[in-house]
């Protein structure tokens, strides 16, 4: 249904950046091409960043034909416009995957972070089946304020990382695996049942959700750091 303002049943949250420090992501999987185009135009007119997630290539091409200035990220299945995707990020974190099959979920997280000026360094294919690959990178990983870990199968990489490193670890169960892996449910349950204290877990394949959880932590740390500096007169 199209309303008088051409909104196609969209009621975008243009106040989210002020309230939360993040933009509204448009869920693209269940939206039509016209709805995505309408959202892009509305956000563009408001001077806001566009981030559309879960867009297949066919739908993305149809959208971009109408709005050629949009950018499609095929691995992440995201469409973006505007935002803080620059060469001068205000913060960095590390994004780990158990295997290369986890990369689409990691890419979604990376694009979502980039839209908010956060660079994610990808450290791929360091799953527990070859634990030496992770162990060789521990000193490097210790430098990052937050770690996002994407893993399918049994999902044990997140527990191992959270048991070895002290910073916040956000686990993303991935729907990679067969048989009893059950589309990521075993990875999810394993992460939720982790004995590593303080491991945070988001929903299956929710790279965007992990990115926003990390963004909340980073923004809070940044705000507290600025407040301490102001209190000290620095």
UniProtKB/TrEMBL annotation:
<dbReference type="GO" id="GO:0006189">
    <property type="term" value="P:'de novo' IMP biosynthetic process"/>
</dbReference>
<dbReference type="GO" id="GO:0016787">
    <property type="term" value="F:hydrolase activity"/>
</dbReference>
<dbReference type="InterPro" id="IPR039476">
    <property type="entry name" value="P2CMN_synthase_LarB"/>
</dbReference>
<dbReference type="Pfam" id="PF00731">
    <property type="entry name" value="AIRC"/>
</dbReference>
<protein>
    <submittedName>
        <fullName>Circadian phase modifier CpmA</fullName>
    </submittedName>
</protein>
<dbReference type="InterPro" id="IPR000031">
    <property type="entry name" value="PurE_dom"/>
</dbReference>
<feature type="domain" description="PurE">
    <location>
        <begin position="91"/>
        <end position="233"/>
    </location>
</feature>
């Amino acid at each position: 249904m199209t309303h008088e303002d051409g909104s196609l049943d969209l009621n975008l949250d243009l106040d989210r950046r002020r309230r939360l420090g993040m933009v509204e992501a448009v869920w693209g999987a269940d939206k039509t091409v016209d709805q995505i185009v309408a959202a892009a135009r509305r956000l563009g007119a408001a001077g806001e960043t566009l981030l559309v997630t879960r867009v297949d290539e066919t739908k993305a091409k149809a959208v971009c034909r109408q709005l050629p200035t949009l950018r499609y990220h095929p691995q992440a299945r995201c469409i973006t416009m505007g935002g803080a995707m620059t060469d001068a990020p205000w913060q960095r974190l590390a994004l780990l995957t158990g295997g290369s099959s986890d990369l689409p979920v990691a890419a979604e997280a990376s694009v979502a972070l980039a839209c908010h000026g956060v660079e994610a360094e990808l450290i791929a294919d360091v799953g527990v089946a070859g634990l030496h690959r992770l162990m060789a990178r521990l000193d490097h990983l210790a430098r990052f304020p937050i770690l996002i870990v994407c893993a399918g199968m049994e999902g044990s990489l997140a527990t191992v990382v959270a048991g070895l490193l002290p910073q916040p670890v956000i686990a993303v169960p991935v729907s990679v695996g067969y048989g009893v892996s059950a589309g990521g449910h075993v990875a999810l349950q394993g992460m939720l049942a982790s004995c590593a204290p303080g491991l945070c877990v988001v929903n299956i394949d929710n790279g965007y959700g992990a990115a926003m959880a990390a963004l909340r932590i980073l923004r809070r740390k940044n705000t507290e750091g600025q407040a301490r500096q102001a209190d000290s007169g620095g």
